[in-house]
Amino acid sequence: MEIKQSETTTKGEFYIEENGEKLAEMTYSKAGDTMMIIDHTQVSDKLRGTGAGKKLVLKAVEYSRANNIKILPLCPFAKSVFDKDPELSDVL
Questions:
Q1: CA 82 from chain center: how many Å?
Q2: What pairs with residue 32 in β-bridges?
Q3: Quick one: which of 2, 10, 53, 78 could link to 73 by a disulfide (CB 3.0–4.6 Å)?
Q4: What contacts 17, CB < 8 A, 6 or more positions away?
């Protein structure tokens, strides 16, 4: 399951696409150069139960660590992933 990323100057997303169809996405807004705000996560029924949503959040964590960016998880799903895993708290 390959996670791709697209980004503009103010917004971005991590997503999973298969055969030209976007099956999962997690969108974020950039707040300056040091913060990203995760605002939405959506997973198609085709990927439910595969952990795709969590994988999107973990990809955002990997990206934030590599770029020294903090994450503000406003999306309820993303927030629940952070709440359940204290090892992710360094990016909050």
A1: 11
A2: none
A3: 78
A4: 4, 23
